[in-house]
């Protein structure tokens, strides 16, 4: 009788080794935790890169901001996450979702998210793909990478271009005046936390009646 395995093509051990090495490198590159079972949308699946001034929110904060965004966007709403990948990841964890979301991010590792990823450099605030229409998002959540007025001002151009009106900004408490000046947003009671404590006091700002007060 023929061996059942005969008709399964076998890879040469050399090819197999090369393939395994490739997968291993890929896993390490994406910071995938193989032992924990991997969800590409979970916070920390892509490691923080401090050189890019990245600081992920704690799980609770990301969940809270994601929920707020969904409510604010409304049924079938469109949400843009500008330099706020941990909120994007939380939004993607929600199954059977009734909203769509885009991530605008400088870190190209996020391109694993496919078409929803848009490369974004705040130094060129309106250098956006043509299919990203002005005022096409029900809410924009933004977390400018640096605590500088220049960074906020440029990110604000992007936010104002994208949003139909609602803005949820996360930045340092020291930016309160600039946030009001450039975006007309006011500080909320909700205090966002990060997975690693930051030296700077961090706050959320909105320009609409939110659930964060």
Question: In words, what does this structure look like?
Answer:
This protein is of the alpha/beta class. It has one domain (50-206): Vaccinia Virus protein VP39 (Rossmann fold). 30% of the residues lie in helices and 18% in strands. It has helices spanning 13-29, 59-73, 85-93, 149-162, 176-183, and strands spanning 77-82, 99-105, 117-119, 137-142, 163-172, 186-187, 202-206. A seven-stranded mixed beta sheet has the order 3-2-1-4-5-7-6, with helices on both faces. Helix 3 (85-93) links the parallel strand 1 and strand 2 (99-105). Helix 2 (59-73) packs across helix 3 (85-93) and helix 4 runs parallel beside helix 5. The longest helix is centred in the N-terminal third of the chain and has 17 residues, at 13-29. The protein is globular, with a radius of gyration of 20 Å. The N and C termini lie far apart (74 Å). 32% of the residues are buried. The model is unreliable at 32-38 (pLDDT under 50).
List the helices and strands and how they pair.
Layout: H1 13-29, H2 59-73, E1 77-82, H3 85-93, E2 99-105, E3 117-119, E4 137-142, H4 149-162, E5 163-172, H5 176-183, E6 186-187, E7 202-206
Parallel strand pairs: 1-2, 1-4, 2-3, 4-5
Antiparallel strand pairs: 5-7, 6-7
